[in-house]
Amino acid sequence: MRNLYVPYPAVIKTINEETYDTKTFSLVFQDGKRQQEFRYKPGQFIELSLLGYGESPISIASSPSQIGYIELCVRRVGRVTEALHRLSDNDIVGIRGPFGNGFPVEQMRNKNLVFIGGGLGLAPLKSLIRTVFANRRDFGKVTILYGARTPSDLLFRDELAVWGNTDNAEVLVTVDVGSSDWQGNVGVVTTLFSKTAISAQNAVAIICGPTVMFRFVIQELFKIGFAEEAIMLTLERFMKCGIGKCGHCNIGPKYVCLDGPVFSYKELKGLPGAL
Ligand SMILES: Cc1cc2nc3c(=O)[nH]c(=O)nc-3n(C[C@H](O)[C@H](O)[C@H](O)COP(=O)(O)OP(=O)(O)OC[C@H]3O[C@@H](n4cnc5c(N)ncnc54)[C@H](O)[C@@H]3O)c2cc1C
Ligand code: FES
Question: Please, what is the average pLDDT of the chain?
Fold first, then answer.
């Protein structure tokens, strides 16, 4: 049986610099059997460990349709993530997991999907977006609204362009503060709602980003007519163990590491400190 406490060694195969502070790491478990057995759902996370530095929860950015490796997109913010950013190809890290519930992909089948991502929040959404495009006929229209602080903070520019050129899909991007060479939209992510026609009919909205963004985005979705249970959020709360033992991640009676990180608005509404 898989031991939830034991980190399994994984080798860094490639490192892609997304922005000045964010890199995508492609990883393969050292033990081929572990690699084969490692199954996950979009929206799940792992605990990434570096000897001498500690452990951090990180969402899996790849999709289960990408066989043989996993991808993590990590922003450099502190002790563990700075140490990770100093590593190179063939260096070893530890991985526990996968943990958390993940997105209810089956319930999303045949629905129109509206993704709203803020900053690094596009990384956890990417796993689901890739899953949807890998099984394109199983889902309806895909709309992606993505906002970052500045043009140099924008993640996955190449993929955004590819997704936007896919049949029955639309991608709208904005930045809070533009630059001299930025010709796109300037304003917070909610300004994108008036630039496209989003319908709540047969649709699910999926949000990931800073907490303050959640509140404004949810207001917009209510105006359009989304029901509470048709709004899904993935939360990035302070975590330690990832397996329901330490109590670092709870919101009221819910443990983000076990019950989440994906919740519907209906589940979170009214829980103190949730949004
Ligand atoms: C379910 C989940 C999924 C996540 N997915 C990703 C991901 O895909 N990519 C990614 O880059 N990060 C992700 N994070 C956040 C990541 O875990 C933290 O940035 C990381 O643990 C920071 O560790 P550190 O040792 O580098 O920083 P520390 O030295 O611990 O802290 C640096 C600063 O960041 C703050 N901080 C630490 N953890 C968090 C947190 N969880 N939320 C807000 N502020 C925090 C600290 O208060 C401090 O100000 C996720 C978090 C959770 C809970
Ligand atoms: S992180 Fe320890 S209980 Fe959730």
Answer: 95
